[in-house]
Amino acid sequence: MKPYRRRASTLSVRRTLRRRGAQPKVVALGGGMGLSASLAALRRITGDLTAVVTVADDGGSSGRLREELGVLPPGDLRKALAALCGDDDWGQTWARVIQHRFQSKGEINGHAVGNLLIVALWEQLGDPVQALDLVGRLLGAQGRVLPMSAVPLELEALVKGHDPERPDDVDTVRGQATVALTPGEVQSVHLVPSDPPAVPEAVEAVLDADWVVLGPGSWFSSVIPHLLVPELLDALAETKARKVLSLNLAPQPGETEGFSPQRHLEVLGRHAPKLALDVVLADEAAVPDVSAREPLADAAKRLGAAVELAPVAGSDGSAKHDPELLAAAYDRIFRMHGRIGPWR
User: Which helix (H) or strand (E) element contains residue 155?
Assistant: First the structure.
């Protein structure tokens, strides 16, 4: 594990890619703010980028639209599209617009503009992929956004100690929003239905990729669900792409409270024992010494992966990734861990 201290500018990274004459095909899997952080970094180093987004959200505006209209929850898809907007005036204006939430005393309160736009196009076109592609063109998104499945999914978790008065009992907790904040210890998660069909374009993107990026994000409610879609998991096992897992900067209150970095790998391995990885990316401040790095290296090795440490945290002290630093870390990993496509 070699800590990485260089901070490459977006301009220098892009110049390097132009000199190569091609760019890596990258697929990023996840949901919520974790996926947004990864996409904001990846769009700085490649123009061939696809986001495959979880569709199990049942809270907030997404949950209301899902319940009322029977549609896929649009919220995580909207966040991914916003993260892919460019840094010019057009991109940043549209990113703010689709993220804008109405505030009122009526039924529209709390709804995000982008959620309503996406659902309106779904109803007009009858094709979730075509509709998301159209929104992406409108925004000038620097990449493509796909749902991992074309059917709304429900997340269920087995949680030990969910009821503080019964700390040794294991209960079933239903709903992504509930699982993300559950007290107790999450033992495992599964999807309902248990064998949902994957979106064919998402499977094709994984099979055709040079690199697949999984994480960061809510571990049980945004990262692991992709491994519970049989066709996606098969594609991840079959693809010749190299796979990098990006760890969170800190445990998430409720869902992974008290988790060490290596424990994140252990629970992921239990949910997808046949999945092999190539690289595990961790913030160097999260594993500051040998006592923390050795267990992480051992856990990564069991998944077939090497560990790369890099400074990827923002400077404001929050548990958020810095997009420039994360972009530099991804770029180094793509360059240093083997050649897959003609971009090398």
Answer: strand 154-160
For tokens 């123009």, the residue is: 47
Farthest-apart Cα atoms in the chain, separation: 62
Please give the sequence-ordered ranges of beta strands (E in DSSP) within 175-252, or none if there are none.
185-192, 211-214, 242-246
Q: Are strands 26-30 and 279-283 parallel, antiparallel or unpaired?
A: unpaired
Cβ atoms within 10 Å of 335's Cβ, excluding its own: 15
pTM for this predicted structure = 0.88
Of residues 325 and 63, more confidently modeled: 325
Tell me which residue of 253, 311, 300, 26 sits closest to 142, measured CA to CA. 26
With tokens 């098969």, the residue in question is 234
Q: Is the pLDDT of residue 339 over 70?
A: no
Reading the block at residue 186, the tokens are 């999450």
Torsion over CA of 298, 302, 304 and 310, rounded to 10 degrees?
-30
User: Cα 340 vs. chain centroid, distance in angstroms?
Assistant: 22
Q: How far apart are CA 299 and CA 307, in angstroms?
A: 10
pLDDT tens per residue, range 289-330: 888 899 999 999 999 999 999 999 987 777 789 999 999 999
Cα Rg for the chain, rounded, in angstroms?
Answer: 19
How many angstroms separate the Cα of 236 from the Cα of each of 49, 113, 222, 271, 272?
16, 33, 16, 14, 11
How is residue 228 annotated by DSSP? G
- How would residue 46 be classed by pLDDT, with cut points 50, 70 and 90? very high
Q: Are 17 and 334 in contact (CB under 8 A)?
A: no
CA distances from 94 to 73, 84, 141, 155 (A): 20, 11, 10, 31
Q: Which two tokens stand for residue 344?
A: 């090398």
For residues 214 and 245, is the Cβ–Cβ distance under 8 A?
A: yes
